[in-house]
Amino acid sequence: MPDVSVERLAWEDPVIGTIALPRGVMTLRYGFGSGLSTRPGDAPGRIWAIGDRGPNIKVRDLIDTYGVDHLAHLLDIPGAKIMPRPDVGPTLAELRVEDDAVVLVRMLPLTDASGHPLSGLANPGCEDLLAEPVFDLSGALIPADPHGLDTEGLVALSDGGFWVGDEFGPSLVRLDRDGRVKARLLPGASGVQVNSGAVLPAIAAKRQLNRGFEALTISADERWIYLAFQSPLAHPDEDAHKQARHVRLWRLDAATGTVTTQYIYPLDPPESFARDCALGAFKRSDIKVSELLWLGPDTLLVLERGSATTKIYRCVLDTDTEVVAEHLKVTTRPTLEELSAADDAPVPVLTKTLLFTSDDFPEVTADLEGMALLSPTELLLVSDNDFGVMGAETQFWRVRLDRLLID
């Protein structure tokens, strides 16, 4: 592993507002820690960032931390979330790294083609797609929104537009330079009716709840999109998700949205996430892939994490590690996830080389999700503050390595 140094950069989250609750005040802050990207041709230090769906909190956390006991009846609803400000939706930000600080230049709320702000409300569920039930602070059910996005991965394009990865659909969303949706690519069986002009393989709808597309990057010529699911699919069921040891990684033709190649990325054993294990029980299903970064032909950086422990791997894609196209079909049995559960999974697996682990740097915060290349030897990492619902603030970290990341 290379020699590494880390430095926290100064940053202040913009405040959205406050909410008085029985046991204190919730201060909501914008968060831009879900994805980072640089744009070809931009000046050094210019960074694009994106936050996720908007402020949301688990029912148990809202009761235990803020004393909102009148919502106790929602504890028995699987996956229930509270959105204290459903009017705050996904937002892009232009940032600038200046010496030892990150500066906010401007924010761009995402909008539909007509310019109306997009919500971060969950899409309607169906037989093939799990969806979260969402409630407001009074306990009233908030209707699902087929256009809602839980934005995570981000790619800034040379024409000024963007690609965004969404966990709800899961979907790929093409934005123009003003953050307006131009197209949304959804799984063929998602049940979400949005005119996208293209569809993704139906198997994408088998993503585990809230574990869709979070990691996204693109080749230098912008011909190929690379994306990874956050976790193994729940295919054919949730038990397969919990037992699987690998995550699907796709290469897509950016012009057509067609998946051309599938790989499987091996997750580390749970016991190797030292800081997470020190906090209590830590399972294989707690491990996530949160970011990809294109370094050169067939070479990616992969950000793999628990909560407290974050690792960065260099990963080389080659023809020997391609998975047969049969495993893009929903009907194929056994599924990749079922095969993945075995110690010696009988499918080709990507190899990876460790470059960084936050277990070696206890000062580095938890919940690192975004990653961008500042220079051939420098990375910028950012944490997800969850809009401050539990008091967290965004942290930016510059990671310097003693060797070139780009060959």
From TrEMBL:
Q: Where is the Phytase-like domain?
A: 34-387
Q: Name one Pfam family in it.
A: Phytase-like
List the InterPro entries. Answer: Phytase-like_dom (IPR027372)
| Alphabetized SUPFAM superfamilies for the sequence | NHL repeat (SSF101898)
Protein name, as recorded: Phytase-like domain-containing protein
